[in-house]
Amino acid sequence: MNTILQRAKEKAKKLLTFKTKTKKMVFLMVSAVILSLIIPTQISASGPKFNFLPGDYELLRGANASKGETSWHDPVNASINDAVAMIVYFHNGVVDTTAHNTKIKVVLPQNSSQTLVSQGYLWADNAAQISDTFTINASQKASLEYISGTTKIYKNGSQTGTNLPDGITSANGINIGDINGCWQYSGYVIFQVRVKGTTPDLTIQKTVADSSTQSGSQNWVKEDTANPGDVLAYRLYFNNPGNDTADNVIISDVLPGHVSYILGTTKLYTNATGTSGKALNDNIISSGVGIGDLNPGAGNSGYIIFQAKIDSNLEAGTYVLINTAKIKADNVSEKQDTAKTTVVVQNITPPTNPPSNPPTNPPTVQPVVAGAKALPQTGDMTPLALLFSSLGVGAYYYIKSRKEFLNAYVKSRKIW
């Protein structure tokens, strides 16, 4: 500013050395030169504008809080577990304007790296967005994590910070309100991040469904029941819950006995493939299928589905079919999970066939004596039945002979 004023004075002095008939004209010309040098053209802009004047700081800088740094700079060196403070500077440089609903957002790097670059943004409802970057050089491959409860705002020249809610690193950022135009209304927001060491990880979850009984609308479960000849669908869900990339991920499956893989049924489903999926080779039950590198985060997860068939000709008994899914990477050890299907085959006894030959000794039928009533036939004659039958015949003849004797006796008396 002093240089600008000095230049203006020198120009004015030169102008005053000229002889002129009208001193008023000279004064007006000098005033115009001074104003053109001192007042930037942006000052007459129609709306608010951020951080554009000479003397404004960078939008985004930092300092290593763990190492006790007191000056803000870019880049910053840090070790694993260091806390690094970031400062976001704001200044509406247009006098007599107000930036409404001013917002600040800082996007932290999503992937782990030794060079961690964050992106800062500042804008308002009626002011254009500006951006800046800030770099942390880590001692080794690392990631950044926002430290909850560390965001404060220093507004209108105050040296005492006011707590702000978390959210400066979220998708929408935070709203710091209206910012009037002029130097005394400038300020800054400070928050901290943690430099974290990186560790990739892998998880796999195995579930099963009986495709033969559910018409393609699978109800994925850890355990189910099925029948001989049923088609089973297996789903292998995978994820990287760590904070580093798992390199060259391989997924495989071990089928139990009495279950056969159905060729051409293996498909991969991720956000990239959509609901249609991507066909994979049939190595899922042998050497496994490769899905490439897997970055951390639920958004990078996915699943593999394939089908297998239970043997149709199973002997009577209970079969517990345990299927095992496996996942591994070059920098992550193997993980496993299982699903179980129980098949129960009943032992059915065939019905007993009736005898093909007639009885060896058919029942004996006794002849009926003339004049005697035949007894009803109720089955084979037992010895006891034969005895009573013989006694009956004997009694009949005894009674009959007595009756004939009496009749003959009566007739003989009449003759005599």
Note down, in words, how this protein is organized.
- The chain is of the alpha+beta class and 416 residues long.
- It has three domains: 2-39; 60-197, no CATH class; 203-345, Sandwich (Immunoglobulin-like).
- Helices cover 17% and strands 39% of the residues.
- The protein is built from four helices and 21 strands.
- Strands 1, 2, 3, 4, 5, 6, 7, 8, 9 and 10 form a ten-stranded mixed β-sheet that branches. Strands 11, 13, 15, 16, 17 and 19 form a six-stranded antiparallel β-sheet that branches. Strands 12-21-20-14-18 form a five-stranded mixed β-sheet, with no helix packed on it.
- α1 (2-17) packs antiparallel against α2 (23-38).
- It is elongated, with a radius of gyration of 52 Å.
- 24% of the residues are buried.
CATH architectural name of the largest domain: Sandwich
Cα(first) to Cα(last) distance is 189 Å
Strand content: 35-45%
Uncertain spans? 1-5, 15-22, 24-44, 384-388
Number of helices: 4
The shape, in one word, is elongated
Top-tier CATH class of the largest domain? Mainly Beta
Radius of gyration: 52 Å
Q: What is the total tally of β strands? A: 21
Helix amount: 10-25%
Structural class: alpha+beta
Number of domains: 3
Major sheet attributes: 10 strands, mixed
Topology:
Blueprint: H1 2-17, H2 23-38, E1 60-64, E2 76-78, E3 83-90, E4 98-107, E5 113-124, E6 127-146, E7 152-154, E8 162-163, E9 174-180, E10 187-197, E11 203-210, H3 211-214, E12 223-226, E13 231-239, E14 246-254, E15 259-261, E16 267-270, E17 278-279, E18 289-294, E19 302-310, E20 317-329, E21 332-345, H4 383-415
Parallel strand pairs: 2-6, 12-21
Antiparallel strand pairs: 1-3, 3-10, 4-5, 4-9, 5-6, 6-10, 7-8, 7-10, 11-13, 13-19, 14-18, 14-20, 15-19, 16-17, 16-19, 20-21
Helix pairs in contact: 1-2
